[in-house]
Fold:
Amino acid sequence: LGPWRYGALYLAALLGGSLGAVLVTPDSATVAASGAAYGLMGAMFLVARERGINIMQTGLVTTLGINLLIT
Structure:
């Protein structure tokens, strides 16, 4: 992916997560690091699926599930 594209992906996920949090709860303060992390996991999911990698064997689903339980 490279450092520039990774940075752009992270920034887009960060801004998207912030926007989504503000739309859901407009009166609360937000920190979008979790939105950026979910965006990166979503990108990993799409890249793995595109390359034919079995998502269940990567541990990504487990990590995503644990993060959803925590947040």
Observations:
- The chain is about 70% helix and 0% strand.
- The chain has a mean pLDDT of 86.
- The two ends are 28 Å apart (CA to CA).
- The helical segments are 3-24, 33-50, 60-70.
